[in-house]
Structures are given as C-alpha cells and as structure tokens.
Amino acid sequence: QVQLVESGGGLVQAGGSLSLSCAASGRTFSSYTMGWFRQAPGKEREFVAVVNRSGGNTWYADSVKGRFTISRDNAKNTVYLQMNSLKPEDTAVYYCAADSGVGVSLRAPQYDYWGQGIQVTVSS
After folding, report:
1. What is the spatial distance between Cα 45 and Cα 37, in angstroms, rounded to a whole number?
2. Closest-CA residue to 90 (of 14, 8, 7, 6)
3. What count of other Cβ atoms lies within 10 Å of the Cβ of residue 72?
4. 118-123 and 10-13: which strand pairing?
5. Which of 30, 40, 84, 118: disulfide with 6, CB 3.0–4.6 Å?
6. pLDDT, tens digit, 9 for 90 and up, residues 44-94
C-alpha cells in the first residue's frame, strides 16, 4: 500500500513556473514507476510525464515536452514535476500515481495508487 500526497500547486500567470511535489509513504518507493497525470474540466485524465524506478529514464506527453521536467528522489520518497513556460491550457488538476507493474506505462489504468490531486491554474 502506498499513499501519495501532492503539494505545490496554485495560480500562476502564463509564462510562469510551478513546481509540484508528491510525497509517498512506505518503504518501497523505489519499486514503483511514478507518473504525473492531469485532468481539465470536462476532459479525460491525460498522461503528462513518467519516470522509471531508478530515475534514469523519463517520458513526456508531446504537449509538455521541453517545458516540464519529472524527477524523483528515492531517498526522500518523493517525485517532482517542474513546470516552466506554463500556458493557460496547462490548467488542470494534477495527480501523481504509482505503478507496481513491470515496465513503464503511459496509461492511467495501469497505475495502482493515486494522490488526491492538486489544482494548477494558469491565467492568460
């Protein structure tokens, strides 16, 4: 069982930056692939970024590539999402998620544990 708690969201102007953190409970954090997803009002939850267990490999949605950076610190049981050059279309509730399966998935149904979500609002 893993509990995930996001922090760092808020309101920012377009072009600005925000940094999200997701703290995980438990002693097996390094055994999970960690992802960030987001859901805007009236839209389905979508993949944003994922980092593998060691932190050595990352994948991004095309819409955020070059602007967002995912990273993890296994010693601190924390995964991060640095968001730069934010756009109004980045406005959404952001969720971190943990996947105990083999390999790396970009699909939300593959993830076993989810945080409660945190609001990110980008004003134009």
Report:
1. 7
2. 14
3. 24
4. parallel
5. 118
6. 999 999 999 999 999 999 999 999 999 999 999 999 999 999 999 999 999
